[in-house]
Amino acid sequence: MKTRILGFVALAAVIGAAVNGLFVVPADLNQGDAQRIMYVHVASAWLAYASFGVTALAGLAYLIRRDMRLDALALAGAEVGVMFTAFAIWGGMMWGRPVWGVYWQWEDPRLTTTALLLALYVGYLLLRRLTDDPARRAARAAVVGLIAAVDIPIVHFSVIWWRGLHQGPTIGDPSKILNPSAPLQFVLALLAMLAAFTLVWVYLLIRRYQLARVEWQLEEDARRGRVAAARQVAVPSGVEEPAG
Amino acid sequence: MTDAGFVIAAYGVILGGIALYAALLARRLGSARDESGRTDDSDSPR
Amino acid sequence: MNDLRRGLSVATAIARKDALSELRGRQAAGSTIFFAAIVLLLFGFALGPDSRRLAEAAPGLLWLAIVFGGLLTMARLHQLEADDGAFEQLALYPVDRRAIYAGKALAGAAAMLVLGGLLLPVVAILYAIPVGAAWLPLLAAVVLGAIGFAAIGTAYAGLTVRMRAREVMLPLLMLPIVAPLLLAAVKATVAALGGDPLGELGSWLQLLVAFDVIMLVVGAGTYGFLLED
Q1: Cα(C121)–Cα(C130) distance, rounded to whole angstroms?
Q2: What are the residue boundaries of the structural domains of chain C, listed by start?
Q3: C175 in contact with A, Cβ within 8 Å
Q4: Contact A42/A192 with Cβ under 8 angstroms?
Q5: Fewer Cβ close by (within 10 Å): the C or N end of chain B?
Q6: Which residue from A22, A32, A221 is facing B44, i.e. has the nearest CB?
Q7: Within its chain, how far is the Cα of A220 from the centroid?
Q8: Relative orientation angle of helices C179-193 and A134-163, to the nearest 10 degrees
Q9: Is there an interface between C and B (3+ Cβ pairs < 8 A)?
Q10: Do B3 and A98 touch (CB under 8 A)?
Q11: Per residue in C191-227, pLDDT tens?
């Protein structure tokens, strides 16, 4: 099974990147060991956004082609995405406490945007859970996923302008790691973690997609079973079935 | 909590969470596949 | 050209129907406005009694009251169709979905505008805010906010009004989406009231316009899929 192999490769990659980030790479001069958190925090955030891109695009494709497999992919993206978003926020908080002194900073645009991202996609998942009819669920979810995806860039720009005149914390600036003048070792460590996480992401997407497909089949079987049973009850009584 | 504590909390929850989710998926997939394998209505398209 | 004209007449017909049912609607609209005013009052109890702090918070509180009242408003505007099964009828009718959306959104924006407009004097009194001087930019902010809220509210109300747990689903879906609208509207209001010392009023209004345009386009584009339900 190719997916299983991918799973093991991803596992090895994550272990390697984690060991590298935790023990091999030196600590930052200003932020100390806390800076190591950036590797998993940034990687989680990027994959969170990638996941929701998948959800939005798969949903859009579903509206066009009405293929339930696309809906399964959208669901997989959303669930995996919510997980990585939660991780990104957690990582941000764990980093923020030692570096900023607080768990939450309203002036950090990425933290606030990510929190909204979480809210948007938890709503998406709840909407799905509360809709029973598969076609209706897929259509509604696709619309919501699309609108959420469109909202994110608006949120991004608005919170950056919002912070505008308050200069963000410069020493404890999380984007420092993305600065081109960051030490090479840090950049490589981040890339390694990102690569490892991406492998994990693909693996999880595949598995969640497969699960969605099987669960949908089960749903269909149950529905067809109910229809067949109902038909069996109606006919033997000799009642004339109305046309159409 | 020292800095190391926060680092452990971060990596622990994130990597542990990934592992948990992967395990959960594997279990749900296994049981769902079992359940659908047992169904023998032949007119459902695959 | 014929399509456009037909679409416009459908849109105005729907908007007019909604406006009439709002006006006749057994004080439902009035109740919502009163609810929003009570919310403003309650904010006073929650954050007061220091009037300086309340004055500083007033723009934010105003827009929160508009948002909460707006949620009820948007739900109400779609409840009638939902109860009558009219959505299914509309879906069968061979008219451009975007026209239906436009009509509903227009009615929604008008209702929101009334809500916002009536809350301005309430906020002016309760929090001692000089709204009179800055009425034009304030009006612009309220108009743009109303349009944006109605744009997304029409789509989501149409979606949730026939759902289980509909009372919580509409706010749950809408609140994260309107966060940038809220942010920009409050910032614009603050700038307007303070005489715009930093010259940022224009930028915030532009953000509102961008939000409105994007949400109107996406809402119109997807409304058909929600009707076909």
Answers
A1: 10
A2: 2-227
A3: yes
A4: no
A5: C
A6: A221
A7: 27
A8: 30
A9: no
A10: yes
A11: 999 888 888 999 999 999 999 999 999 999 999 898 8
